[in-house]
Amino acid sequence: MLSSRWTPTAGTHRSLSRAMQKRISHTKSRKGCRNCKKRHVKCDEQGPPCFNCVVRSTTNTCSLPNSASPTPVRQSKTPPVSSSSELLQPPGLPPLTRVVSASAQSRRMLELRLMHRWSTTTYQSFCSTVYDPPWLQSYVPECALEHDYLLYGIFAMSSLDLIIGGSVVDETQTQMYFQAALEYYDKASESFRQQLSNITPTNFHSMYMFAFMAAAMYMARPLCPLEQRNRQPEGVIGRAAVVMKLLMACSGLADQNVGQLLDVNGVSGSSVTTTITAIGNVVRSPQYLGSSTEEALARLRNLIEADAFLNLGRGAFATPSSLTASYQNAVRWLRVSFGMEAKYNETVMGFCLAWPALAGTDFVEAFSKADVMAMLIVMHWAVLLDRLGSLVWWAASMGRDLVREISKAVLQSKAQVAVGPEIHQSIEWARQQVGLTSELEFDFSSVNPSFMGLLGT
């Protein structure tokens, strides 16, 4: 919640939308509707309308190949006997609609299922303090009825939860829910971008919640089985850079609306106050983190002071002095994050997600450009992210994957940089913390080549 100011941009959310529109491979359907054939996606053949057309709001054009147009029902010229429902109609109004269309019913059932999932299960993974469940379970769905980006965000997040949480085991249903997640998020992101210049006391909490959902969804998407099978890996370092910027966007919204967050009569006041109090306690009275973690953080500080990596591409984005200050600030808040995890893990969950904003814009920019020192620091943050992944489904495996890729990338860069023993010790510590093997067993051929280019190897 406490961060340097950083305002979300339309470009960030456009890149996220593009990243989530990757086509999914599928078995061919001989009897699928024309829309699915045109889009080259698998049709469930249960229509018209089919599930995909319901999700895409194209039910009016959903038709099967060579299907005959329905014959219109002849209207009887003789007026039928009035039913009780027709007698209750006020003069001049049409009779009550008795039959809900198949498309509307399918969409309604889908969205009821997704909202039920949010209100019973999904919301729990976003709770940080004991004060969060009431407003996440009840207030957020209520706000979603007025703000469509939040409504679609809930549907997208719940779709992924159903897939990753194991409630959906059928292959066809998995594909349906994954497609629904992509479609709903695309709609949510477009609507959200349109509101970024119009943040008010009325919509702030909805905007804030969706900004956080965007980061969570970007972490969760690679966990989907369909994504793992059909999408080329983009590189965990690149994905982490996007996640960090989205988390900064979320903190930027909070920073610009602190008054509403701290309002004791507001929905988030008690939760935010609890978090700020805990941060103050950790900052004023640093807790001993154990010899292993204390030594790991001391090594990072020594590396910064030794000026070992400042000649690596720094001129592209900052001066040496500002980079040094950026590293030191990032490590300072990293220690606070470890302290929060050690002392308040059961009362303030997930504080490590605030760390990118606390580390600052210059630091995140350095990491996104594959600065070696920045990557080493982020590798230590990934240890906390891995621990969070054991508590919330959408963060599972990202911390471990990030440690794996960063450690390989840093060691691969030793052709250009004199990698000393402290670097090996830092890498070894991080890998052990997340359950990986020794760095001596690395296979460098698996490192994403785009980041090797940035490292100058």
UniProtKB/TrEMBL annotation:
GO MF annotations, alphabetized: DNA-binding transcription activator activity, RNA polymerase II-specific; zinc ion binding
InterPro entries assigned: Sterol_Uptake_Regulator, Zn2-C6_fun-type_DNA-bd_sf, Zn2Cys6_DnaBD
Limits of the Zn(2)-C6 fungal-type domain: 32-64
Annotated region described as Disordered, given as residue ranges: 1-25, 63-90
Keywords attached to this entry: Nucleus
Alphabetized Pfam families for the sequence: Zn_clus
Biased composition (Polar residues): 1-14, 63-87
Organism superkingdom: Eukaryota
PANTHER family tied to this protein: STEROL UPTAKE CONTROL PROTEIN 2, TRANSCRIPTION FACTOR, PUTATIVE (AFU_ORTHOLOGUE AFUA_6G14150)-RELATED
Name of the protein: Zn(2)-C6 fungal-type domain-containing protein
